[in-house]
Design a protein that fits this description.
3 strands
Length: 71
Amino acid sequence: MFRMETKRLIIRGFSLSDAEAIFYFSQEDSVKQWLPDQVYSDIYEAKETLEFLISKYPHRESPLVLAVVEN
């Protein structure tokens, strides 16, 4: 899987362990304003979305979606 790392930043593919962070991120008002379709009702819903996106990585069937993480 794609991974790029600098001293301050990591860009990588998502993993299921990101579900909780994705859920809480989606609850922020600044995210809701610009990404209303990416607001999850619970962690399970965020995990389902991640499972779908991760399943597409090997087939390159959809746009590449990556996680940006502070290092």
